[in-house]
Amino acid sequence: MEISSKENTRFFSNNTILPVDRSSFKSESSASKEKQSCCGGIKVFLGALSFVYFAKALSGSYLKSTITQIERRFDIPSSLVGIIDGSFEIGNLLIIILVSYFGAKLHRPRIIGAGCLIMSAGTFLIAMPQSFMGRYRYERFPSTVNSTVNISPCLQDKNQTSLSALEKSQVKINAGCEKEAGSSMWIYVLLGNLLRGIGETPIQPLGITYIDDYAVEENAALYIGCVQTVAIIGPIFGFLLGSLCAKLYVDIGFVDLNSVTITQKDVQWVGAWWLGYLIAGVISVLAGIPFWFLPKHLPKPESRKDSSTSSEQSKFIIEDNKDRYKSYQQQAKIAEMAKGKSLEFLSYFFPSLKSLFGNTVYILYLCASIIQFNSLIGMVTYKPKYIEQQYGQTSSKTNFVIGLINIPAVAFGIFSGGLVMKKFRIGILGAAKLSLGSSFFGYLLLLSLFVMGCENSEVAGLTVSYHGTKQMTDYEQALFSECNSGCSCSKNDWDPICGENGVTYVSACLAGCQASNGSGKNTVFFNCSCVGTFESSQNSSAVVGPCQKGNECPKMFLYFLVISVITSYTLSVGGTPGYILLLRCIKPHLKSFALGIYTLAIRVLAGIPAPVYFGVAIDTTCLKWGSKRCGGRGACRLYDSSALRYVYLGLTLMLGTVSIFFSVAVLWVLRKRSSPPDEILPANGERGTCGTKSRKDNFVNSDCLIQSTYWPEKETRL
């Protein structure tokens, strides 16, 4: 602009009249319009993609918040819930290769829109069993349900058993067994989550590459950062939605809530888990609508038309002649694409795979990430259950705490890691140190949680004997004692009552209660022989519901929250440095392929198995299993708090420790490559191409260190 003004001054001073080139004005005008069109289109796409990221993150986190609700509603163990949770990754893996390969050649916005519809269909399918299963039935003694008949909980004479209370109840149960025995409604939840995984697949690869193809190069990283930021907000709303729905009774709107005799603190309480899935499904539908009206292509910015860098769309398969590729993209059908490119795909895939597996740093970091993600995924999946069982908190409060405290700490940690990387211009060796330090101190903090647990609730016959001593014998046999030997009780029931002595009894019958008064939540049991025989007992009455945990438990819960937030932040600080380390340890042209293999490995070896074996391990700590209406083991009613703490935290720490060893190996290899001890410097005093001038310039690929000019001004913006 300055040059043109100087030239005009000189020309006019010489009284020279120059002809005006109107074509240049037209070209500038058209370029300006094209730029505005490009910017407007990409910003619309950016807004739509951000909303989709929010929708998928919300539905995914909401599923985590309903783990315990689903377990209780369908009467299934934690291991089976883990399979349901892992089905999302299975659905994602089923079509990830097809989407990544063919998606770039088709109408990407519409494929994303179709994915949103599939994702919403899966979310609606998860909620569908609620309309088929009938009303939720929980175990309750008849007198707490029927206010007109007071029945003795301890039926001393079996011949005098009340037909209206027990036999009629058993007849109703047997009548419904034929239908229930032939159906497993949890399969719908599994299939729905599988569909969610299929629908979510095209969003990230096609959405990010679309932005990368048509955004101004210096704005691409900013746009991607905006999308990722919105994705972090999704889980916050997901857990808050889970907190709200957990407060509402599962059959709200269909039953009289005054007749419900359990509270939120009861282990049989099930919230309106299905309601959140309906809301998440509607949001997914709305998020997919804009993509059906977006174009297949946007005009490319002027700065990228002559750029030597190719887009992700042309990098996925080995590059052809540009003219041939354009013609091929416009005319070929899907079948022809698969047939014509199969050999080229194989010729690209296997050499690239060999190159990656020959990269020591990449393989070590991949192993460290797989093991660490096993640790983190298992911990996050069952964190709500751990808080509920260990500290006696309700599902609603647990989800509220996770959504409002833990997730923002994770987001702030990721941001802090990126900020430190950019501010101090940390190189690959520094990134490896920061990632290792983050993991080490994070798991070290997690170690302190072993002493921040609550003691087992005092449950007669399970954790303590009927005389107040610690229970050491077989749990099931210990449910019967001299004080309830004259009663006709079932060891399979779970209808807890709280005695005046502060001890919980599995049922009023096993507490030896002879009479009851009142109805519903206000039922009071009297003349309970087992309550009277307990040490230091002054009364023999009891009320409905389990007793509260010890006085120290609320304080321990506060300590747990503080350490949990700090731990979440510390572990998250290493997220960005670890990602940069992954990008820097491979050759530039293998980035996309390496990230694909990395994502695939994490999903297959961590996302799918971790919830399953964590669930199996947690099931081993169960003290009292519920019983299904038609027989068989249901969901766990009571866990051994100490065993649960050691299993849950121990498994997390064990996996984290192994991942730290691999991270140490990564750092050792990088140091060995960057600073050999017996390195001979050239005559000019500088190191060779595989050396480094300073700690900030330690960038490596599989063969030698990447030049320091590759780092600045590019990846630090991610």
UniProtKB/TrEMBL annotation:
Record-linked CDD domains: MFS_SLCO1C_OATP1C
GO MF terms, alphabetically ordered: bile acid transmembrane transporter activity; sodium-independent organic anion transmembrane transporter activity
Annotated GO CC locations: basolateral plasma membrane
UniProt-listed InterPro entries: Kazal_dom, Kazal_dom_sf, MFS_dom, MFS_trans_sf, OATP
Membrane topology: Multi-pass membrane protein
Keywords (A to Z) from UniProt: Cell membrane, Disulfide bond, Glycoprotein, Ion transport, Lipid transport, Membrane, Transmembrane, Transmembrane helix, Transport
Signal peptide span: none
Location in the cell: Cell membrane
Domain of life: Eukaryota
Stretches that traverse the bilayer: 80-104, 110-128, 220-250, 270-294, 362-380, 400-420, 432-452, 556-583, 595-618, 647-670
UniProt catalytic activity: 3,3',5'-triiodo-L-thyronine(out) = 3,3',5'-triiodo-L-thyronine(in); L-thyroxine(out) = L-thyroxine(in); L-thyroxine sulfate(out) = L-thyroxine sulfate(in)
Main location: membrane
Pfam families associated with the record: Kazal_2 (PF07648), OATP (PF03137)
Positions of the Kazal-like domain: 477-532
Entry's family note: Belongs to the organo anion transporter (TC 2.A.60) family.
Protein name: Solute carrier organic anion transporter family member
Organism: Grallaria varia (variegated antpitta)
Gene: Slco1c1_2
